[in-house]
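Step 1: inspect the first sequence and its tokens.
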Amino acid sequence: MPLERDMEMEFKEQGFRDWSPGLSSRDQLTQAAFVGALGGFRSLVASVYHLKAHNSFVKKNWGEVERYRTVTASLQPKFWSYWDLAVWDMAWNAYGYYRGEAEEYSDDFKGWHIENIIMPTYLQKGIDYAKRGLEWLPDDYRLLKVIADIYDQKMGNAEKAAEWYLKASRKPEAPPHVYRAYAHQLTLCAGREKEAYRVTEDLYRNSGDLTLTLLRDLERLEDDIARRAARDMTYEQLRDAALAEDAGYLEMASFAGYLLEVRKDFSAAVDIYEKVAGHSQAPTFYRRKLAFLMADHPKKAVEAYQMLKTLALSDPAALRREDMSRIAQLESRLGIAKQKRIRP
């Protein structure tokens, strides 16, 4: 009896006492395979049906792929990879196959039916597989993330993607990039700009990992803050906020934008942007803004080019890909020798 008790505890710890095939699995398994599963060979049987699923994938028989993936995951429900493969086959492989079909029949009803009925159905099948897997693996961030990926990459639903990336980021083993994905999706959600800025700025100040996406998102959000301030505040309010002793760089940037866009006062705008760029808390992309603003002024073009060159060497992430064409034009105007030009 002690031996049997210890064995039973070990079986429970290993997950061999938490499962019995459901009716759907019984319907799809052959009788011999079902008996094998009950006899303790479910891992082997799952491997066989995993191979069957792959063979059906090669033949693009998506109905069989779905059936075999269901059996495989049901036999080994605590094996993350089987759920992930099921999601991938539905939401990526089958979806991609039918996307090609839709393009082939783009001018008739069949193409419309594939694009609007069949393809969304397979996306939902992928989400459903991931949610079923989460019933067995509630702390696995990867299944939460794969749902977020579908909403992001396939559906373009930033609200839902942000929701699921946030859930995934809260799991114990979630890597930092999952929370960054949440922050990025948040910046795409209309009406949530303040929340998005709070999260994005916190990442910029405290994460220690300044990715290109993070910098672009922060710049876009701060541009929006400055535009709204210039729209909603009077000249006097903007001026007083920017020139206050404890003024922040965003107050200065808002005033500079107003001077440039509304008052068309180039010199005054440059003076304020110089203060912004020199502010200890200001991100480096403000130096980029200042440099390109100065580049349009003949008397300041040389100084602007030196600033851009310094940025390209010390902080290349501050420059955008499209900036290189503007820099090349500036170099041509200044007659910079080819061997001394900034390289992309």
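Step 2: inspect the second sequence and its tokens, then contrast the two.
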Amino acid sequence: MRNLTLAVVLLALSAAAAEDPQFPIPAPPAAELQRVNYHKVTYQLYNSPAPELGAENTPIPPLLIRPDGTRIESPDEWYQSRRPELLKDWTAILGKTAPEPRDLEWFGDVTQAIPYSRGEREGYTRIDIDLPMEKDFLQRHLLLIPKGQGNGPFPAVIAWTSTTPDYREPEQWWGSYLASHGYVVLTSWSFIRNYRQGSRSTRAAELVYERFGHWLAMGKMVHDVSREIEYLRSLPEVDANRIGFMGFSLSAKAAVYVAAFNPDVKVTVAVDPHIAINGGTNWYPPWYLDWQRHFDDIHTPDYPIPELRGTVQSLLNPDVKRPGFEHDHHELLALAAPRPFLLIGGSLSEDQGGDSDDLESWGYVNRAKEVYTLLGVPERLQYCSTNSGHHATGEQIDPAWKSFLQYYLQDHPIQFKGY
């Protein structure tokens, strides 16, 4: 029965692929579509604790070849074998992506929102609310509901802010446009910007460890989005099967993990996360992946660097002699398949460093697209490479996300029920 069901799903995916949507995304030079190397590990803005010299000349491991050298030849093998292996590896890295039974005492009914203010804008209604993300933690959100556009239900987009502005900023970036064009929008910010006791960054991560044990910030963000989806699904205006996520910078980083681990998110847009896990940005600190912290449930006693035994870094980079981490974000892009994912980068340089995704990001996209191609939906993974800089919006950026969301959340929503 499972094989029959899978065959039906694959037939539907093949039919969808035949539509081959044309997005306003510039076609890259042919050389970029052949790129499979890592990012160069730079020191331009951030000092990586793992320099990995020569990574930029090393091929990123292909995802359709197992560790034992055998090749994944069919979608069935990907879904039943290789994908679960990667999911297990990354769950060990993150600790968890959802609460364990002993954690549930801290989570109540997230649908019990507390409204604060309500205002009318052209095309939508704007409501400030608090959501009980944990029983003792209310997180401020902004809810935008289409007005004068019918009764719905509408597709919904969860839109998070970046590092510096507050939870309302995505209304200006994307939300006002989306709500005026038939989407419910829920804006917020990551818990590392505003958590219990007014904490942020490192202290916020520490409070998670104190309460929940090994639960990296990126994994906690995945669960927070699942709470927001639970709330959205309680609203009559929302189509529960058409929910997307969108983020910039810090929240684009969250988008990568949300896409990989939350199948309820049907479409994802990540604006300039810097997809390389060890390139020119800061995936390593406590408020993201906490590479060098020791966890009791990470067992790597034979790791060749003794001081890194029992750390996330020992799992991400098991072969210290080979340039480049063996586990990198091309794996997470592939875990999102067959759901649509749009990466938008801000640099057309060879190695921009810093926060922007540049030409070297093609290596990660190309590796993940090998999986999307195997599944018959290569057009669902897109990379819009721009020279817009590290910005949430822009003349090159806006047409890409507008068309991508419209196609996959409004005009041609995918029928995906989970793995």
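Step 3: confirm your contrast with the notes below.
The CA atoms of residues 243 and 293 lie 34 Å apart. The longest strand covers residues 124-134.
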